[in-house]
Amino acid sequence: PVSSTLYGSRSLTGDMGGSVTHQCFYSITPANKHDRKYWCKAAGSRTCYTIISTTGYISKDYWGRVSLEDISQNGTLVVTMTGLKKSDTGIYQCGIGTTNSDLYVRVNLTVTTDATTLEPIKLIQGELHGSVTVLCPPGDPQGGEKRFWCKVGRSGCSLIANSDGYVGMSYQGRISITPQESSGAFKVLINDLKKEDSGLYRCGTGRISSQDSPQMVALQVTTASTLPKRPKFLSGTVGYSLSVKCHYDPKGSYEKKYLCRWKGATCSLLVDTDGFVHESYEGRIQLTSSNQETGTYTVVISQLREEDAGWYWCGAENGQTEHTSSVKLFIQKETCSSQDPETSTLVKPTLSSPAASSTPTQRSITGLTHTMGTVTESTSTLLPAASPSTFVTTPSTFVTTPSTFVTTPAEIYYQSSSGESRLLAVVLPALILLIITTIAVLILTKIKLQKGTGEESSAIGNLEAAPIRDGVNPVEKQMEENPSPGKMHKHSTDPGKCRWVFSASGTARVASL
Fold first, then answer.
1. Which residue in 82, 138, 406, 437 has a CA-CA distance of 20 to 30 Å to 45?
2. What are the record keywords, sorted (predicted)?
């Protein structure tokens, strides 16, 4: 049977003649709300005899000493047994469904003469992608013991986080254990809630194997959440600035807003609305604005360093309750345009002037929105986040990507050397082929023209020259032999008998008709 959406304590102890109360918690879905709930006692591996159910049935052996309450709005099933007998010791099932083999969780009840009384399980509800605050009571009065938070399962309680810095893989960056001043109590803060976070937990001090932890907690994550799922990562560049917009519930009344740095289940305060600034961030972090109507506030970190990389939390306190959200920051050393695998060209971005303005590129995350950029004393010029393929620099914006670099208004464009070699390999053969083709066409044209000229000269040479009549003026003869270019002069003492014929070289010849 699938019992992951139904959970409760795995063991109970009760005094002879006394009473026990058992709580089961289920996911709040329409089917679970309206389906049959039951409490039965197991007899063997496959049989479970119903003691009481929400249909009104009660076993005659338990009349007057058992009750079952279904609190559907909280997804809680409460079973109470009184007048305990030694024979009541055994394995029971708390379940949902038309039969006793559907959805259920098992619990082992032990009836003794010196049972330890346990505190009732505390129910904590949170929205999907939201956050919760769990208050754990003081443990060992001597103090100094490590604090822990573990999840109850079939084989024991699996450690999630402790005050020594251990954090489970699926809880990295989203859980912290905060001790309370002098009381010995502590708070467990969890954000970016997931469906699988629902379940039964224990918080306490000392050894996790100890069964006398003072607090049991049932965490329910409601899937009908109005909170959006936002990205949890942002990036910055060494020497530049980062603007982080944090979100909180505008309907709540919060005494303090802050930004802290998370590491190993603790979150060190960096800046808050009370004016506190961590010494290592003096002069380069400030909480610049807060808007109660929209439920936002902005934190600016300038002069980013490599060591600034890591997890950060936005937080808003309301008494013992805190609304938190987390984000992981990645820091780039510098921006460069990609070259051959062995070499690269470094690019130093140009800082914008105080008067310059630009439209920031923003990205929302769980409980916060971030904008990358440089911040000056008078105005904030925000930088869009760097991506891995183009670099653009204008008087007010700066974007980086690994293969091209563009500077406006000068319009200087650089390509990687590998790109140039590929372009040259394509263009050079085509250029050589074009030159060879052109030369060949010119040679063929010249040969054709020479051939045509030779044929014409041969044809004219075969004509018999007409005799020149006597009495022709020598000057006229000279004019006939050397006519003006482009003109043809007709001369004859006997019109209609002669005509001028020009050879290709322009020499006039007289042909007889």
1. 82
2. Membrane, Transmembrane, Transmembrane helix
